[in-house]
Amino acid sequence: MFTVPTADGADSPWPIFERLLLTHEELGELASMIDSEIRVAFLMRLGDWGKHGRMTLGMCCIPSVQGELKPLFVQLLEDTLGYFPDFLILLNADWWEEASPLQREILVFHEAMHAGQAKDKYGAPRFHRETGAPIPTIRGHDVEEFTPVVRRYGAWKSDLAEFLAAAAEAPNAPDNLTPTGPPVVTVGCQEEADDSSGPEEPQMTAESTNRGER
To answer: EC class of this enzyme (predicted)?
Structure first.
C-alpha cells in the first residue's frame, strides 16, 4: 500500500527535500531541472519491503511502463498524485516512522542524488529536441565494492580512496544511523546496477533499469 505525503506535514519528506535543494550544492542540477518544470513526487510505501533478508529504505525512479498497460499506469499515477512525475521517490514508511530527523535527511538526500540530467558522449547536458526540457536520468552510485574486500585490502582503487576520504571528513558524523532492525538496502531505478548491504548502517545500491534504491 502507498500513501501520498502532504506538502507540509510534520512527518513529510517535502520540507526536507525543499530545504536540501537550497542548502546542498550537490543538488544544484536537480534544482535547475525543477526550475525547468521537471517534476518530482514522493510516495510512502507501507508494509514489508525488501529482498534477501534486507530492508529497502527507498527508491528513486523514472516511472515508466511499456506496452498496452502504459495508459493505465499513467492514469493511475496522475489520479494518485495529481500529475505525472519525471522522478518518483518511494520511501519506506515503517522505517521513516522510527527514523531520526538526521536519518530522514540522509535518506532524502541519497534518493535525490539519484535524480539527474542525461549527458551526451561529450558530457554536455541533454535536452528534448521538441520541448527543450532536460532529459532525466538516474545516477548510479559512486562506489561499488564488497565490505570484505575493503576490510582485507583497503582503498585499492581511486574511487574507494575518494569515498573513504569523504567519510573521514564528514563533520559531526553520528555513531549509528540505523534504527534497530534487519540490514537495509536502497535501490536506484533506471540504468545502473549495484547491490550492497550491511548489518549496522544504511547501505546504498542501485539495481535494474530505471531505478535507484536505498
So the answer is: hydrolase
pTM of the model: 0.81
Question: Which H or E element spans position 79?
Answer: helix 70-81
User: What separation in angstroms does the CA of 142 have from each of 101, 114, 116, 145, 187?
Assistant: 25, 11, 14, 10, 14
In single-letter form, the type of residue at position 34 comes to I
- The three three-digit cell numbers of residue 59, written as one number: 527508491
Distance CA 152, CA 80 (A): 48
For the chain, domain boundaries: 2-213
